[in-house]
Design a protein that fits this description.
The complex is a heterotetramer, with two copies of chain A (333 residues) and two copies of chain B (212 residues).
Chain A lengths: L10 H12 L4 E4 L4 E4 L9 E8 L16 E7 L5 H11 L5 E6 L2 H16 L4 E6 L19 H14 L4 H13 L1 E7 L19 E4 L10 E4 L3 H15 L8 E7 L5 H17 L4 E7 L9 E8 L2 H8 L2 E2 L4 E2 L2
Chain B lengths: L3 E2 L1 H17 L1 H11 L4 H17 L6 H15 L4 H15 L6 E2 H19 L9 H12 L5 H18 L23 H17 L5
Antiparallel strand pairs in B: 1-2
Classes of the chains: A alpha/beta (333), B mainly alpha (212).
The complex binds adenosine-5'-diphosphate (2 copies) and magnesium ion (4 copies).
One adenosine-5'-diphosphate (ADP) sits at the interface of chains B and A.
Chain lengths: 333, 212, 333, 212
């Protein structure tokens, strides 16, 4: 295992210290509890948004803390959801009297820890709403299983709900918009290589030099199946087709197309992939209203990419265009 | 043949469990790498170490208080699925031992049953979904098989947990991360069932008089 | 070799098509000549800046085209400088009557191709000034050699000179500022893995699992020496010390600290590295005025990082803080 | 024993050089991977293919026009160090052949000397710095050794270029990318010297009557 780290036990703490040092004017990092806050809290009377999850997906979530997006992010250990104490502390700190939205990716651990925290926070008089993202079409959705994973749509939900909160909308509305984003967004990912969890010290799965995994998540879980590596144009098809098969038609609205890198695939390759995705969507008659290409929700040092399509109505687009000023996503501000 | 145990044995249990988990953490992580996210051993080692630290720090005795403190510590330090699950298990188990003085085989089984009830309430899984429940349920049934002999009961529970762990290998997961793999989850032992087998074995050893 | 590409011959063309598709409102890409332009040219009477170089360093240079930074970027083949025709076309297209600055990284090929282009453009009446960056302390500077490589400081020079050009300063001043940035900036890089040039199909150098290269450039050149992998804190020392040994004292001004990823190292590791760098600089009494952490000048899929320190006077800091709105770097706009 | 050649032989030269470079492009790239940036073979193949395409497209004949077209094509298609260098070489070589009718060994040597002068003017390197100059200078000296026999002269030049190429192996580079490696550049053949040896060999074969 080759990584720029000090030791497997201090990766998360060291990276948070680095974030604090890199963004002293924008962020305040609780290095004890592993919580990233905005340097300046938003005004009283506004809904706050707290997210969080295991580390290893940077810039998600800490990099999305700032005006127009999150109020706080709780960083768990690598691929391990944060604990209720962190979530309660963050929720209490950012509540401006208008309630707090918990944006949670659908993993058993994340859901349970946020659930415990929300129960306790509610008990202390803070209004908490929870929206769970579950956009990964690689996983079958069923009442009888853990359901689909929350992946790329989380970034879009954090941005769009964040803008709604910034406008002063009430908690129920902010939660409704986040729910709507999740309901209209679908994702699919693929990997050229496994990631290596530091504490494990070796790749989570072995992948021969001429094969790729299709349908991977963001935690080094192997995918749904394996096949020979293929040109970018074919890989684009493996991502676009299953998404379109499950994407709500949504009154023929166009999409926000989000081509995401898994951490170790360079931007030049992500642009190659985005070109193929855009061509495919054009051929399928799907209009692209907005685009995002880059490493936003990663899986440590995995090479590969994921595609998220969000069928976006006019309100979502307006909120998407609203100013955002975070280390990981910034425009209009 | 001991008929009952005191909370000192539960302290020993937690210490033995910590040592066994620490020793086998890499193995647990490797099981989790195959069908999950390669953190179960790291998570459990961190949590059990914190539990022993909390126990060492002392505080009001009694099985009830001890297990509640241990449960809260797991909830606050583990995260992921295992933190809330094992944490809730111990919290409920402690609750069930609240007014029990000397713990016999039946009251221990009642307490484990309360713990398992907590697991189900939290995780909403059932037996056969390739989770730690597939080790806990057989363990509970085995405990109930020796109402008079807590040593035999816990030894039988440990063996049953181990068999339950092995029985998860061919299962196709429908809960937890392994469910994302669908049919590819078959052929691997569930890491949570494996940690449960370790923990129940530590219980049997503590009850049998092993010291930590 | 595992890459998200269609074929080794079309990587650059496909990636440029992807850039065009990903940023339709901000960029205009000449897919024939491989030149990235701003969608809206700047006003008449302002100095324009053209840069460019081999591809494989994304977002450099195309991702830095936009208000506040470059006017055009010429994309060569992978690791191969652009040809004079491209540079002449870009220079002619962006000249707004106030002359054009060529910002060139110091590599024999880049220097010669820009030189030929500048001669021809000057012949057709366009005022051209050239600033060559050469900040890499891994390479000895000498009159008798090819000199130091241009690496990380190029990003800072593009930003700072870009802001000066935006303010309407004359060509000589813009060039002087770029020269000053280069003169006061130094860099040092290291690699955990080699990159793989697509047409070569295998890593440019072999590096055992427990070794790293110190003093690498951005083209998969092996470094100056090889050693056992070490904790981030020690790696930080390998970068900081040689830079400080050659960094101008600059009236005790503080620095802009730029911790750059080589393409395949995830952000979590870059933050870990930045933390160590910041600690070391504090211990050495070097004030950090501004910071930049991320993948900005990459080397395909190489894992590793580089550090650039720029001794920044007040004018440089003001220009650094000025608004910039490009795909790769954006603030205040 | 031919005493002179016409521009048709130069066309054959370019074609043979294209074929030989294409065939050995991977080898050149591999040499460049060791001490440069792994693109020399790709660059030269792209450039020579474009040269042959330009030659095929026809246009005004004559050694002068032919080599200028080839040089401009290299400048416009290769990039990197090799594009301006080989491009300038051919432009200057063409210029030197401007008013030469039938090309004899001496006028060929004069033209190559003009080309080498272009390399030095562009690249500001000297012999012994581990660049293509270390193949060109020996080739030029060998050419001058057979003023009456252009076939023998070019064959000697090709052999000298090959020896010059091999002699770059122990050198420590002070120009071009390899210079970044300092002492680690020793032990590797310079890729530009290797491509030069291929190109001079193609010249000798064309002059000896080989067809493309
Ligand atoms: N819903 C559930 N009910 C019971 N046990 C579960 C459930 N989901 C997961 N588990 C158990 O948790 C174990 C995984 O724990 P761990 O790896 O620490 O958490 P995570 O999956 O969040 O990474 C699984 O092996 C399984 O035994
Ligand atoms: N200053 C120079 N003078 C002469 N030849 C040079 C000089 N610099 C580099 N070269 C030659 O160019 C070759 C490299 O060409 P190429 O790989 O195509 O370009 P680049 O180095 O830009 O990638 C070297 O092997 C060397 O022979
Ligand atoms: Mg986990
Ligand atoms: Mg796990
Ligand atoms: Mg090159
Ligand atoms: Mg080269």
């Amino acid at each position: 295992m080759k990584k720029l780290i000090n030791s497997v036990d201090t990766v998360v703490a060291d990276a948070l210290a680095g974030m604090a040092a890199a963004h002293p004017d924008a962020l305040r990092v609780d290095l004890d509890k592993h919580i990233v806050y905005r340097a300046r809290a938003k005004e009283q009377g506004r809904v706050a948004i707290v997210s969080g999850g295991g580390s290893g997906h940077e810039p998600l979530h800490g990099g999305f803390v700032g005006p127009g997006m999150l109020d706080a992010a709780c960083a768990g250990e690598i691929f391990t959801s944060p604990v209720p104490d962190q979530i309660i502390a963050a929720t209490t700190a950012v509540d401006r009297g208008a309630g707090v939205l918990h944006l949670v990716k659908n993993y058993t651990g994340d859901v349970m820890n946020f659930e415990m925290a929300a129960e306790i926070a509610a008990g202390s008089g803070i209004e908490v709403a929870t929206v769970v993202t579950n956009d990964d079409v690689a996983v079958e959705d069923s009442l009888y299983t853990a359901g689909r994973r929350g992946v790329g749509v989380t970034v879009l939900a954090e941005k769009i709900a964040g803008a709604a909160a910034e406008q002063g909308r009430p908690l129920a509305e902010v939660a409704e918009i986040a729910t709507r984003v999740n309901a209209n967004g679908r994702s699919m990912g693929m990997a050229l290589t496994s990631c290596t969890v530091p504490a494990n010290g070796k790749p989570s799965f072995d992948l021969p030099d001429d094969e790729m995994e299709i349908g991977i998540g963001i935690h080094g879980e192997p995918g749904r199946h394996r096949e020979k590596i293929a040109p970018a144009s074919e890989i684009a098809g493996r991502l676009v087709e299953p998404i379109l098969a499950e994407l709500p038609a949504g009154d023929g609205h166009g999409v926000i197309a989000f081509l995401n890198g898994m951490g170790a695939s360079p931007l030049i390759e992500l642009y190659v992939m985005y070109h193929e995705v855009a061509e495919l969507l054009a051929a399928r008659g799907v209009g692209i209203e907005r685009r995002l290409v880059g490493n936003y929700i990663t899986s440590l040092d995995m090479a590969g990419c994921s595609l998220t399509l969000l069928r976006a109505d006019d309100e979502m687009l307006r909120l998407w265009d609203a100013p955002v000023n975070t280390p990981g996503l910034r425009w209009g501000a | 043949m001991a008929a009952t145990i005191g909370s000192d044995v539960l302290v020993t249990w937690l210490r033995l469990a910590d040592a066994a988990i620490a020793e086998r953490a890499d193995e647990l992580t490797e099981l989790d790498a195959a069908i999950g996210d390669a953190d179960h051993g790291t998570n459990m080692r961190r949590g059990m170490a914190a539990v022993v630290e909390a126990v060492d720090a002392g505080g009001p005795g009694g099985a009830d208080a001890l297990l509640k403190k241990a449960g809260m510590t797991l909830v606050s330090t583990v995260g992921g699925a295992a933190g809330p699950l094992y944490g809730t298990f111990l919290l409920r188990m402690g609750g069930a031992l609240k007014d029990v003085g000397a713990i016999g085989s039946t009251s221990l089984a009642d307490a484990v049953e309360a713990g398992v009830g907590g697991l189900v309430a939290r995780g909403k899984a059932a037996e056969g979904e390739k989770t730690m429940l597939d080790a806990w349920y057989p363990a509970l049934r085995a405990l109930r098989g020796h109402p008079e002999d807590i040593v035999a009961a816990t030894r039988a529970a440990a063996d049953a947990a181990a068999s339950g762990r092995d029985a998860t290998e061919p299962m196709i997961a429908t809960k937890g991360r392994a469910s994302y793999l669908g049919e590819r989850s078959a052929g691997h032992i569930d890491p949570g069932a494996a940690s449960t087998a370790i923990i129940v074995d530590a219980l049997a050893r503590a009850v049998a008089g092993e010291t930590a």
